[in-house]
């Protein structure tokens, strides 16, 4: 286990791939730049105390050679104009027609890539759950976990790898879009539920012995999130974090004050 001050312990296998391969040039690049953080006068962090109290408190402990930390978050890009075949407006239009708090947003980030088998289990698990969902799906890859950082999704048939008949069977309660969705707008929509880890707003799906998260487990967790008592508690916690985020960004909020302090220092060092 890797123990980082202020953070929950993590397994080495959960680190980024380049960090695990110490002979890789990418590892050397990351290590070189990580060491350079100590040369900075200060570091802005896109977070806030209520979201990551342990990590921020640890980072704010004063030590020789340690730069000052300025939590200024949450800063979210709400003004993106990027469009991919109209999928952005399609997502929001579809969400407008769904009941409040009823849609599970399924996304694995800009470069997150699943294997063919895991894509199949995820699709069938979402179908079995009978829950509404918006899934930003990317082409599977059985070799590289971050393959989508370096590839462009085919526009001929972006869903040809999904289980046969899946789109037809889930039509109406599920929307699948290729590669990209307007994430900030989707997550702020009243019909979605956001899941993250380490802040008590997530349920972890348990993998099987071969490493796959099976369809039955995906269906169970999806139902628990949107219908069960556990899901209700998580949504209440998310609401508390949302309120805390708004307080931090208010005129007298901690993030606003941190940003003002930093701007004042910049102005006086010219």
From TrEMBL:
<dbReference type="GO" id="GO:0016757">
    <property type="term" value="F:glycosyltransferase activity"/>
</dbReference>
<keyword id="KW-0328">Glycosyltransferase</keyword>
<keyword id="KW-0808">Transferase</keyword>
<protein>
    <submittedName>
        <fullName>Uncharacterized protein</fullName>
    </submittedName>
</protein>
